[in-house]
Specification:
This protein is mainly β and 124 residues long. It is built from no helices and 12 strands. The strands form 3 sheets. A 5-stranded mixed β-sheet has the order 1-3-4-5-10, with no helix packed on it. The radius of gyration is 13 Å and the shape is globular. Bound molecules: FE2/S2 (inorganic) cluster (FES). FE2/S2 (inorganic) cluster binds next to loops.
């Protein structure tokens, strides 16, 4: 279980990517997640990481449209495969945000396209 909270880094990233900086990939625990307060839509996002791969999702559970973290910034992840909503334990796959178990099984988190630039920033 790994999670923490991070504020948005402002400014344009170096290089040719126009994306918005969310955090550094090294800020996200391998096999875990980090909440970034301001994502692409100005709302909190969850950045999930497995090794050098990252994904980002709106911090909003499709079950009751509430943040997945009951305690701010604390997102539970298991076996580098799924993250869990703190409210009713829905499990979402890292790769696509699809809910594989729980009260909203079959639904999915809203995802954002992200990439990692040469300096190690996660860009949305
Ligand atoms: S609010 Fe997330 S599982 Fe119910």
């Amino acid at each position: 279980m790994n999670a923490s909270r991070l504020s948005l880094h402002s400014g344009q990233p170096s290089g040719q990517h126009p994306g918005r900086r969310l955090c550094r990939v090294s800020d996200v625990p391998d096999g875990g997640a980090r909440v970034v307060d301001e994502g692409p839509a100005g709302k909190p996002v969850i950045v999930v990481r497995r090794g050098e791969r990252v994904w980002a999702y709106a911090n909003r559970c499709p079950h009751f449209s509430v943040p997945l973290d009951f305690e701010p910034g604390l997102i539970s992840c298991y076996r580098s495969q799924v993250l869990m909503c703190a409210h009713h334990s829905a499990l979402f796959r890292f790769e696509d945000g699809h809910c594989i178990e729980g009260p909203c099984a079959g639904a999915a988190l809203d995802g954002f396209t992200v990439e990692i630039d040469a300096a190690g920033w996660v860009l949305a």
